[in-house]
Amino acid sequence: MSKINLSGIIALLIGIVLITGGCQMETKPEKARVIPLEDFFKNPEKTAYQISPDGKYYSYMAPYQNRLNVFVQERGKEEAIRLTSETDRDVAGYFWPNNEQILFAKDDGGNENYKLYGVNIDGSNLVCFTDFEDVRTQIIDDLEDIEEEVIIGMNKRNPTVFDPYRLNIKTGEMEMLAENPGNIQGWMFDHDGKLRVAFAIVDGVNTSILYRETEEDEWSDVLTTSFKDDMSPRFFTFDNKNIIGTSNLGRDKSAVVEFDIANGKEIEVLYENPDYDVTGVSYSRKRKVITTASFTSWKRERHFFDEKTKKLFERIEKGLGDYEIGISASNKNEDVFIIRTYSDRSLGAYYIYDINSDKLEKITDVSPWIDETEMAKVFPIQYQSRDGLTINGYMTLPKGYTKETAKNLPFVVNPHGGPWHRDGWGFNPEIQFLANRGYGILQMNFRGSTGYGKEFWEISFKEWGKTMQDDITDGTQWLIDNGYADPERIAIYGGSYGGYATLMGLVKEPELYAAGVDYVGVSNMFTFLKTIPPYWKPMLDMFYEMVGNPQADSLLLVEVSPVFHADKIVAPLFVVQGRNDPRVNVDESDQMVAAMKERGVDVEYMVKDNEGHGFRNEENRFEFYRAMEAFLSDKMGSEENAE
């Protein structure tokens, strides 16, 4: 786990050349079939496959009354048992703690106050372990080697902090292991399930790693750094002595290191990449070896520490052809694996691979109604910002077009959320839907996007609506300068921070965009910072340094709050919001819409009372994207409407 769970704070929320008679003339590609909207946004047929510790059963999530629920099926048998019957909201996630039970989480209407439930694999004994009002439950450690216990975190005692509890999932008994003094943002356990490491915030912006040799010892501060410098412990070495983690201490890019936790010193760099942060490191619990490190260039890449793991991937890749693959689960003996494939044009399929028989068998396609031959390719691109940064991103063109033949297309510029996150390569239903409707799409990893090193991240601090926005504008201009986009038919659309960037794009460049779609986006930096969830408050000083302090930086925050500049917006706007959103309060959208209506600017508004930070319920997704399709078509048309 990371030193400080910043993602919890900042994840505010992914032509034909015809040669005739010796001359060349460009023609449009044959018009693609208009695929039903529901095909892109309905729940997958079966997804989130996992396998029981003994390898005898696999489980998955599938729709029941249009909500994703958990099913379990014995290997080699056809029938499955539905374990959950949730009809108001999808199950948020689940896992196997042992061979007899499934644990799963669900919130209420998007409020993100997740409760933890358990159910036996025959469907009996459904129980809620954390049935507390206005309390959020986290899974800290599944204690894979202790079948009757898991470690959870809850903000039950104090809504601003999470205390760790040892939960007996057979009896329901809970024991609080430590009382969070108010500054602890994470806890870490060794391979024996002992609480040995804690991650604290000091003075609001500095962070400390706390350590103790045994659970009876006092905590000692072994390393304190600025939050900009990151040593993220991932797991203990197999003798429970040192730590394997990722660190950017003394370097720009995060690397895999071994760390002497007792003395707070880095021992050895195990792997680093010169261009990208290493963001993941995996190990074999059974064989007690580190297996892979992962990083993302324009695709996910792996470095192999272990020859056996490398050969496993080579065997799977040989059997599955030209798809990206991931191992999503394995049994405890590590000889049966669940494999997931994907690509830019396919949500992929699940397979099961048995090492003993060397059999690789397909279980199911995730969305069999999607024909990947009808989908659009996603191209990696680069452009230069006005101040000389290299900005990486992706361009998706309607099917049949290439970067050489795409000219004067209508485009949707799609900045990602976070903002300290990044776009990646893979199947994105929003992107494919828009491409099928005739739009090109540009996604860019503007400054602050993660994975490109410390400096690229830090130069985004207090640059919301400023140079971060300029990077988006420069990408839009790149489309125009290269002839890809029709300058009169460019829209901007994004969710969370991307929704904020949509509003600021319409404010800063009122003539550049023909329309904007703001999905759960921030509009007023002052009210946004006042209404964040209570468990973000211990990190507020850190957030002030990254975004701006309402007192010290009040002029800056006025400058970059779209609601105060609604008079500059001339393009039509569509605003979409979940009423129960705990991250971007509904007031953010309410006040923006009111400001627009006061000026008489064309604005449409959709609010869903049973949603939070993004729409999970299938029928709400359908309504949103149907409305967005009509809005974009009305305001700028699509490729097939071009003269």
Walk me through the structure.
There is one protein chain. The chain has an eight-stranded mixed beta sheet with strand order 30-31-33-32-34-35-36-37, with helices on both faces. It has a four-stranded antiparallel beta sheet with strand order 3-4-5-6, with no helix packed on it. Strands 7-8-9-10 form a four-stranded antiparallel beta sheet, with no helix packed on it. It is built from twelve helices and 37 strands. By secondary structure, the protein is of the alpha+beta class. β13 and β14 form a beta hairpin. The protein has a domain of 233 residues: Alpha/Beta hydrolase fold, catalytic domain (Rossmann fold), CATH 3.40.50.1820.
Summed up, what is this model?
With 643 residues, the protein is an alpha+beta fold. It has a domain at 15-36 and 371-522 and 567-582 and 599-641: Alpha/Beta hydrolase fold, catalytic domain (Rossmann fold), CATH 3.40.50. Helices cover 18% and strands 35% of the residues.
Features:
643 residues; Rossmann fold; single chain; alpha+beta; disordered N terminus; 8-stranded mixed sheet
CATH class type of the domain at 15-36 and 371-522 and 567-582 and 599-641? Alpha Beta
Count of strand segments: 37
| Class by alpha and beta content | alpha+beta
Task: Give the fraction of residues assigned to helices.
Answer: 10-25%
Strand content: 25-35%
Task: Please name the CATH architecture of the domain at 15-36 and 371-522 and 567-582 and 599-641.
Answer: 3-Layer(aba) Sandwich
What's the CATH topology label of the domain at 15-36 and 371-522 and 567-582 and 599-641?
Answer: Rossmann fold
Nearest-integer average pLDDT: 93
Main beta-sheet strand count, sense and barrel state:
8 strands, mixed
Strand order of the largest sheet: 30-31-33-32-34-35-36-37
The CATH superfamily of the domain at 15-36 and 371-522 and 567-582 and 599-641 appears as: Alpha/Beta hydrolase fold, catalytic domain
Calculate Rg over CA atoms.
25 Å
Task: Return residue spans where pLDDT drops below 50 for at least 5 consecutive residues.
Answer: 1-26
Separate helix tally: 12
